[in-house]
């Protein structure tokens, strides 16, 4: 049977979601906990390969097992084995054709920019500091130009070859006020490699007046915003 | 001149506010940063001696200096020297008779109890887990018996001798729903040593049905709730 996990983590101490030759990944740790509970090798597929230092509140992953186990009991067993900065928030049995990555219809990411005064120590690991005045009007003018269906390659880091299909639909990019700064809420049907952080990097330049909102698509050099401000909030399925 | 600081900290890594013979205290670290900036010995007086592991969003402290320095510049200099889990949120010049502890008219503490499901990793250092069902009705019945002016010695840890005046007024003890649990909001004119954590310990027993709400004042043995759920939110002055 196929099982779906919803996983939350503080990415500060990890090399990202995906198993890496050097470094501890979230995928590896959750896989290890699953193998301890189920007593067989497990291949865990995540919806999104979050980078080193990126956080998640609603990462989704799936795996197959022949072991019949109550979802709630599995959740409790996993959380007893996992470190407190990784939590399995939900366990659910799904259809055999469910795929964490390919079945996803949309994803929501939040990026927290801290603009005013000192950063509250309690959220210091989840904020990126924006130095200088944050021009909300310019920020919103630029986000308006990004919403919709576009070829997002100007904001993608390409490793070797181009992505097969670089067309994505960014259905929402809201600028929401929060204590000390703003939260950028991204929702789209998919995101290219480092696309969110490269968009945020460009938006940070717009917000501080280094470049005009109208120039947002002119990416001569990519400026990637730090990982720690980014959280994968939710993955949606049909 | 006398300077007032508002200080926020994540207490996880510290032995508490007050300087201790063994262990790193917040007072010592802030004092050290002040001495580096001002180039003279500084005696820093805090409003509240938060215990090891207790957090603060609005700790208040004062000190005297003959150095004339712009408050905003002092704040920036201090934050450049301090570790990111301690932040000076505000610096203000005050009257010479202002005293962080004795001038305080009331204090607000929050205690976070996590009741349902796994703890979100992003707030894991600021929550205490309540095992078992959390009976909100019993909880509110007990808090109602604590509000008002009382001799709070049943909830105080006495070290050697009794406090001179154990009468305190708890003006507010609200049970507020939040994601995954409840937040207990305490407001009072003063708190005896470990009073908040001993009240929370007793309330946790009431919430889980170990004891009846009516028995809240019968403290045969004190059950002190863990430090990590507690945050000093605000100190008020006339």
What multimeric state do the chains show? Answer: homodimer
User: Tell me, what's the shape of chain A?
Assistant: globular
Sheet/helix structural class of chain A = alpha+beta
Biggest interface goes to: A-B, 24 and 24 residues
Output the helix-strand order of chain A: EHEEHEEEHEEEHE
Distance between the termini of chain A: 20 Å
The fraction of residues in strands of chain A falls at: 25-35%
Please state the average pLDDT score of chain A. 94
Tally of helical segments of chain A? 4
Q: Which percent range fits the helix content of chain A?
A: 10-25%
Count the beta strands of chain A. Answer: 10
Question: Biggest sheet of chain A: strands, sense, closure?
Answer: 10 strands, mixed
> Rounded to an integer, what's the Rg of chain A over CA atoms?
19 Å
Low-confidence parts of chain A: none
Polypeptide structure, described:
2 copies of one chain form a homodimer. With 238 residues, chain A is an alpha+beta fold. Helices cover 20% and strands 30% of the residues of chain A. The first copy, chain A, is built from 4 helices and 10 strands. Chain A has helices at residues 26-38, 71-81, 136-146, 195-207, and strands at 2-9, 45-46, 55-64, 86-94, 106-114, 128-129, 148-151, 167-178, 181-188, 230-236. In chain A, strands 1, 2, 3, 4, 5, 6, 7, 8, 9 and 10 form a 10-stranded mixed beta sheet that branches. At the A-B interface, β4 of A face β4 of B.
Tell me briefly what this model is:
The structure is a homodimer of 238-residue chains. The first copy, chain A, is an alpha+beta fold and 238 residues long.
């Amino acid at each position: 049977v196929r099982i779906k996990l919803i996983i939350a983590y503080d990415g500060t101490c990890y090399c990202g979601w995906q198993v890496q030759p050097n470094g501890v990944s979230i995928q590896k740790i959750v896989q290890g906990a699953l193998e301890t509970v189920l007593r067989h090798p497990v291949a865990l597929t995540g919806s999104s390969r979050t980078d080193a230092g990126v956080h998640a509140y609603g990462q989704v992953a799936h795996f197959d097992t022949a072991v019949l186990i109550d979802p709630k009991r599995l959740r409790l067993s996993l959380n007893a084995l996992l470190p407190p900065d990784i939590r399995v928030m939900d366990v659910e049995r799904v259809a055999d054709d469910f795929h964490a990555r390919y079945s996803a219809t949309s994803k929501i990411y939040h990026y927290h920019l801290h603009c005013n005064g000192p950063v509250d120590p309690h959220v210091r690991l989840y904020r990126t500091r924006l130095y200088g005045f944050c021009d909300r009007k310019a920020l919103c003018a630029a986000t308006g130009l990004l919403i919709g269906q576009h070829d997002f390659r100007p904001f993608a880091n390409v490793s070797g070859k181009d992505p097969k299909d670089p067309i994505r639909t960014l259905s929402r990019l809201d600028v929401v006020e929060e204590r000390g700064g703003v939260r950028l809420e991204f929702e789209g049907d998919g995101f290219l490699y480092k696309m969110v952080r490269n968009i945020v990097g460009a938006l940070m330049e717009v917000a501080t007046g280094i470049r005009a909102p109208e120039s947002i698509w002119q990416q001569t050099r990519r400026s990637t915003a730090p990982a720690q401000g980014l959280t994968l909030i939710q993955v949606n399925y049909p």
